[in-house]
Amino acid sequence: MQQYLGFMLVILGGAISAGLAGCGSAIGCGIVGESATGVTAEDPNKFGLLLVLQALPGTQGFYGFVGMFLILGKLVGVEITQISISQGLAIVFAAIPVGLIGLISAIFQGKVCAGGVNLVARRPQEVAKAMVYGAVVETYAILGLISTILLLQNINLG
Questions:
Q1: Which end of the chain has fewer CB atoms < 10 Å from its terminal CB, N or C?
Q2: 25-46: per-residue pLDDT in tens?
Q3: Which burial class, exposed, middle or buried, applies to 42 when counting CB atoms under 10 A from its CB (0-12, 13-18, 19+)?
């Protein structure tokens, strides 16, 4: 069992990356969806504009998936019994930026985009402004992904 601990930590890193960011996206998209549903009930023609706002918090889930994919890519050509505990822990720590920042930023992006739904409900022509507000939060999710990529580049499992 001890010989597989490093490998299990690598898998944990992938799970942290995809799992946390994915949970954040689900919550964020849900927050926006609740607001958008009410507006769409009053004016079904705004559905397309609001769908864009609802999709924005979903990007963090994709970033987490990319992080997991990169982590699992580290396993190619590596004997899993040869991965040390310290290497596995390094992968876990490298997964934290994309996972944790993805979790938090998606939730807050959902709140910002829900506010954008209220803006679009009153002024549909202002949808671009609502998207820009959401995109500001997105910046930090992108930084989380870049951080994970840079950290992973410095970990050699082979």
A1: N
A2: 999 999 999 999 999 999 999 9
A3: exposed
